[in-house]
Amino acid sequence: MRAMPVKAAPLGALATSLSISLALALPRAASACYVCMSGRDDDSQRAFVAGSILLSVLPFFTFGGIGWYVRRRSRQIAASEGRGAAAVPHAPKS
Amino acid sequence: VATRSARLHLAAESQRTPIVPNGVMGMLLFVASEAMLFAGLISAFTIISSSALVWPPPDQPRLPIENTALNTAALLASGVCLAWAQYRFGRGRAGARRPLLAAMLLGAFFVVFQGVEWVALIRQGLTLTSSTLGSFFYLIVGLHALHAVAALGVLAYAWVRLQRGWLAQSQLATAQVFWYFVVVLWPVLYGVVYL
Predict the structure, then answer these.
(1) Which of A47, A69, A70 is the closest to B50 by Cβ?
(2) What single-letter DSSP state applies at residue B20?
(3) How far apart are CA B172 and CA B167, in angstroms?
(4) Do A74 and B19 touch (CB under 8 A)?
(5) Nearest residue in B to A50, CA atom
(6) Which residues of A touch B (CB under 8 A)?
(7) Is A76 within 8 Å of B25 (Cβ atoms)?
(8) Contact B19 A77 (CB under 8 A)
(9) Is it the case that residue A39 has pLDDT exceeding 60?
(10) For a FRET experiment, which of B120, B126, B145, B181 has its CA 20 to 30 Å from that of B67?
């Protein structure tokens, strides 16, 4: 009777399983940060909400403001160029 | 004929007014990114101060609210002077010299006054490492002061060019964007950090 060949566990599989185990353990470590532990009273929660709103809304306002300014300038220039073109008299045809 | 027409078209294109000058657009993008930086710092400061059991820390000196209110008024006045300089610039460049100089002097007064306050606070025991209040105070207010000094440099550059008759409207607008950012941001920081 012949014995079945036994392969040693590859190093790659060991590294993969170790990585998965670490990845599964990480969220527990993340939830223990200082900010998560401190944000339990009303004042802290209000500060968190205000900070989140500020950081979420500010990019829209800043870059939206720049876009609005560019659009306004574009219209002003188009209007002034239109007025300039209208003011130039047509050259007589020879 | 087609080549000549194409050349004329290209010449006309090159003479067209840019929608927003490059300098102004660059400064607007810089200011937008700096606004995000300050928003992050304000958010962190608000969370830390509201999470503390006692705020401000009892063993730390109080921030000079009244003196800084005077300083805030000086900075706001410098913003008004710069707006006046821009108005005068459009009606003859020479008329913009005095208001631009006044804006610079008021801005310099703000920075120097801040420095004097800092020296007094450090002597009273508020340092970068003495408490979280000290850390955030010097980080936020110091970063604003750094911007104020840089913007003063840009204003000074604009003023020198104005004196020599080389200042373009777009260069003044670029300096204005930077200085208005410094001016508008300060009352917000004063309200969050001092009050």
Answers:
(1) A47
(2) S
(3) 7
(4) yes
(5) B43
(6) 35, 38-39, 41, 43-44, 46-48, 50-52, 54-55, 58-59, 62-63, 66, 69-70, 73-74, 77, 80-81
(7) no
(8) yes
(9) no
(10) B181
ipTM value for the complex: 0.71
Q: Which amino acid is at B188?
A: V
Amino acid identity for residue B168 in this structure: A
Q: Which of A44, A54, A73 sits opposite B42 (nearest CB)?
A: A54
Cβ atoms of B92 and B99 within 8 Å: the answer is no
Give the Cα separation of B86 and B174 in Å (integer). 11
**CA separation for the pair B184, A10 (Å, rounded):** 63
- In this predicted model, what pLDDT tens digit does every residue of B74-100 receive, in sequence order? 999 999 999 999 999 988 888 899 999
**Model confidence, pTM:** 0.77
Which region holds residue B154: left if phi is over 0, alpha if psi is between -120 and 50, else beta? alpha
CA pair distance B176, A68, nearest whole angstrom: 18
B47/A44 touch (CB, cutoff 8 Å), yes or no:
yes
Q: CB contact, 8 Å: B191 with chain A?
A: no
Whether the Cβ atoms of residue B98 and residue B123 lie closer than 8 Å to each other: no
Q: Quick check: B3 pLDDT over 80?
A: no
- The SS3 of residue B52 is coil
**CA dist B193 → A58, B72, B115, B134, B135 (Å):** 19, 13, 17, 11, 12
Alpha helices (runs of H) in chain B, residue ranges in sequence order: 2-14, 22-51, 65-89, 97-124, 132-164, 169-189
Determine the distance from the C-alpha atom of residue B9 to the mean position of all C-alpha atoms in its chain, rounded to a whole number.
41
Q: Measured between CB atoms, which of A35, A55, A69 is closest to B40?
A: A55
Give the C-alpha separation, A40 to A48, whole Å.
10
